[in-house]
Amino acid sequence: MFSFDERVIPLDAWITSLVDWLVEGYRWFFQMIKWPVDFILSSVSDGLLATPPLLVIALFGVIAWRVSGFKLAGFTLASLILIGLLGFWSETMITLAMVFSSVVFCTVVGVPFGIWAGRSDRVNNILRPILDAMQTTPAFVYLVPIVMLFSIGNTAGVLATIIFALPPLVRLTSLGIRQVHPELVEAALAFGATSSQVLLKVQIPLALPTIMAGLNQTIMMSLSMVVIAAMIGAGGLGAPVVLGLNTLDIGLATVGGLAIVLLAIILDRITQSMATPKNKDVK
Amino acid sequence: MEKIVIKNLYKVFGSEPRKGVKLLEQGKSKEEIYEQTGLTVAVQGASFTVNKGEIFVVMGLSGSGKSTLVRMLNRLIEPTSGEVLVDGQNILTMNKDELVRFRRSKTSMVFQSFALMPHQTVLENAAFGLELDGMDKKQREERALDALKQVGLEGLENAYPNELSGGMQQRVGLARGLAVDPDILLMDEAFSALDPLIKTEMQDELLKLQDRHERTIIFISHDLDEALRIGDRIAIMQGGRVIQVGTPEEILQNPADDYVRAFFRGVDPTGVISAGDIARDSQPTVVWHTKAGSPRATLEMLSMKDREFAYVLDSEHRYLGVVSSDSLRDAIDQGNGTSKLEHAFLTEAKSVQETDSLQDILSLVASHSWPIPVVNSENRYRGVVSKNLFLRTLNRAEKGTYFEQSAS
């Protein structure tokens, strides 16, 4: 009789030994990857923490006012002041720095890959299952290997965030490039555009709104990883939530959650306004 | 002068296009090949020559391969086999850089769907080709403005394409094509998306532009009226094959097969047949200021031949006027022997151009008793169109037998 009990592929054991092997032999390599992330993260968070809170609040207010208007500026000012009054100012700045660094790396990696996938069906077909895996693999599965390779802390949190937040940017960049009408590409070629001119003068400008929507999604997903990142020792707004959960301090967890939501709304509205220029009704 | 020579050009879409060409050469039809191999034959064995400065219309129904054909001229679509020579240079052997340079310097293209960049202003769109070529901003905007002026779009430089009507958008498309000052303008159903009135307006605009700069224009169209209106020569395509190339008159008078004939059914021949096509050298002519060209000698000649009118030319065969036996007699009586032939010219006599259509000359033919003289663009005499001839032509065309009789 056939039974699965005797025929189990020992994949779990293989993976365990693979990770062990990586940790033993190539930890230096992963530490090297960590370095630029660490650098940006610490400079941004140090910078934000060193700046007087009122100046940061004013800066955000001005940005919100420039890209959208008085309404968003008012909301931004009120929310940030509230966060400060709730006692989460420094946590918020750390979270902001983490989101910023993960978005920077997602952009540096995601936009080129998205463009590549947008211009090549083969690349798109290869990337798709990888992106699916990145988005659907439960974060807890890769948290432990990440800790083993990168140790705990803010930087490991950012790296876990990048894995989760990268896919929408790649997907939407690819979609944006693909949505550019083929006649426009043909017209550019007919007038003697080189491949890079087609990209820079036609495809990217026309895909920009979609790419910006991808960036917005990446920011939102980075924020949603804040709590999970806190589980591997990352600081910021996730920390009070995790602490609150562990100690059944519902009040602390909820207030931390409220600060995350407010920050999310501010970043979402600001980036959305940036994606849709208000003066030009250019589609 | 030959500008573009196309030799035995094939395009087969599919995974092994060369195989398709081989099968075609073995005499298999497009349909058989599709059933056997799944290959789609778009253009098969197209050969023709486009002369410098002419408007060459490629006409055919949708699916006849005409859009594929025009895209092979600048290699937006890579031909499967054959040759495309532009100024004697085979563009199919060019490498990437040469091709980019060729596209920038020799050709430009106007599209059915306009294909304007929605994120750029009208001015930026018109300057697009020059920008690709790396011309500096000030210079390219100057040339783009000039091109916009040529197509009547001054004052709209800062608008965006989506703020303009279809006709205006295509003017921008045309300006973009003209700004690079190309030798060859490829127009792919350029006016097909416009409503009829605007379409006619744009055709006139194109003809006007062509008067000023003689460009070589390849115009793709599925509209017969358009082809007849603007085409110096027409190529008719069916099922990927070029089945006939010629001037509108040639094709109308001598259609290659039933397909072409069916195309032309219902075309009003008076709009297509020109005065030059039917003019006959049936009337007596005299050369002035010669012995035989004196009023007396002319009068004598007319009465001997029993004719009423004589056509006066100079020694270079240029048309000067018409005299009748009555006008000659009057001139001789008044002139006391010193009169010259020009004193006897019929003041109402007017010549027509050989390119004028029968429609254009109808009223002249009908309202005068003498046959109307026909001249070419250099005023050289080509013959006359008499009432009789005119009516016979119409009669034959009406019965639908014009083609057969003229062809014989």
TrEMBL record, chain A:
GO terms for cellular component: ATP-binding cassette (ABC) transporter complex. The chain crosses the membrane at residues 39-65, 72-90, 96-118, 139-167, 220-244, 250-270. SUPFAM superfamilies: MetI-like. It is found in: Cell membrane. Its main location: membrane. Pfam families: BPD_transp_1. CDD domains: TM_PBP2. It comes from the Bacteria. Residues 92-271 form the ABC transmembrane type-1 domain. It is a multi-pass membrane protein. Keywords: Cell membrane, Membrane, Transmembrane, Transmembrane helix, Transport. One of its GO terms (molecular function) is amine transmembrane transporter activity. GO terms for biological process: choline transport; glycine betaine transport. The keyword Signal does not apply. Belongs to the binding-protein-dependent transport system permease family. This is Binding-protein-dependent transport systems inner membrane component. It comes from Shewanella frigidimarina (strain NCIMB 400). The lineage of its organism: Bacteria, Pseudomonadati, Pseudomonadota, Gammaproteobacteria, Alteromonadales.
